[in-house]
Amino acid sequence: MLELDRNLRIQDISGATEFSPFRVGILPVPGFALMSYACTVEPLRAANLLSDSKLYEIIHFSSGGPVPSSGAALIERTSWPGGAEDIDLLLVVAGGDPFAFDDAAILEWLRLLDAQGVRIGGVSGGSVILAMAGLMEGRRMTVHWEHAAALSEIHPDCLIERRLYVMDRDRVTCGGGTAPLDLMHALISSQWGGGFARLVSDWFLHTDVRAAADPQRGTLAERLGSNSPHLVEAVSAMEDHIADPLSLSQLAMVAGVTPRHLNRLFAERLGRSTMAYYRAMRLDVAQRLIKNTPMSIAEVSEATGFVTSSHFSGAYRQNFGVSPRRGRQVE
């Protein structure tokens, strides 16, 4: 049995002289967000540094050459994917448009690792790729909030939770951004204790470690710039009813005010009428679906609550200056 002594040195209280590091495979997908990647691997590197021991071994997988990030960084491959692997955890790190991922060989390899008993996870858009591989059935999961609506449309059976990270048996999913810092804190804490995990987090000035259930976004009041409970209730209802829009009277009932009062609040605090704000919200969701998923125009129209594709196309053009089809081509 291994533990860290007071000097952060590895000792084996069972009497053995050697131990095997916890082997973490990283599969970066071209266009991955560098922030998500760094917050995933750097705590493991720091754990090795602070303990002066190889607690973790990181293996980078790629089916090609160096993998480009969304910025200028390239990640060098240390191993080829494809066969059985002697790893304890594999994390797929993806960003950009994970719905465009179409590497059938990688998807099959992920299934092979699952059959082999490897714990598998996704960071940011990596959770989308796990769903594509059919590995999230019956598992709770999370994904970056930008991809949540599209993933729900394409894989309606996915049990998506809007939180920082989810550990469900042999699956680990994380929203990306800085959330992997919190995930890695939990991982290191479970293996080497909370005291050592705190030292690793402090190494990165990560003094406010968040819980798994913490939200991915600021509170609705913060995003709106208003503490009006009536506005918060109305906008929250809008976000919950993108595909099945509520009427002005229904929104007013939820907010606990008259339709006229609600319109006045929206005009004063948010600069537009209630329903204009609602339509712009639905069109923003539509734009993300158009740019980031293979969904057809008709499917996007239905998913965002427009009665017909022609009505949707007209509203989209009026709001963004281009048709939905052109918007997809421009991207």
Give a verbal description of the structure.
The chain has 331 residues and is an alpha/beta fold. It folds into two domains: 2-203, 3-Layer(aba) Sandwich (Rossmann fold); 220-330, Arc Repressor Mutant, subunit A (Orthogonal Bundle). It is built from 14 helices and twelve strands. It has helices spanning 34-51, 104-116, 126-132, 145-154, 179-192, 194-203, 220-224, 229-240, 248-255, 259-270, 274-292, 297-303, 309-320, 324-330, and strands at 2-4, 10-12, 22-28, 56-60, 67-68, 74-75, 89-94, 119-124, 140-141, 159-160, 165-168, 171-174. It has a six-stranded mixed β-sheet, with helices on both faces. It has a two-stranded antiparallel ribbon with strand order 1-2. The chain has a two-stranded antiparallel sheet with strand order 5-6. A hairpin with a 5-residue loop joins strand 5 and strand 6. Helix 1 (34-51) runs parallel beside helix 5 (179-192) and helix 4 packs across helix 11 (274-292). The protein is globular. The model is unreliable at 12-16 (pLDDT under 50).
How helical, in percent, are the residues?
40-55%
User: Low-confidence runs (pLDDT<50, min 5 residues)?
Assistant: 12-16
Beta-strand percentage range? 5-15%
Order of helices and strands: EEEHEEEEHEHEHEEEHHHHHHHHHH
Sheet with most strands: strand arrangement: 4-3-7-8-12-11
Q: Gyration radius, to the nearest Å?
A: 23 Å
Under the CATH scheme, the architecture of the largest domain is 3-Layer(aba) Sandwich
Q: Output mean pLDDT.
A: 90
State the end-to-end distance: 53 Å
What structural category do the secondary elements indicate? Answer: alpha/beta
- What sort of overall outline do the alpha carbons produce when their principal axes are compared? globular
In total, how many beta strands?
12
- By CATH reckoning, the class of the largest domain would read Alpha Beta
Number of domains: 2
Query: Any idea what the CATH superfamily of the largest domain is called?
Result: Class I glutamine amidotransferase (GATase) domain
CATH topology of the largest domain: Rossmann fold
Helical stretch tally: 14
Summarize the main sheet.
Answer: 6 strands, mixed
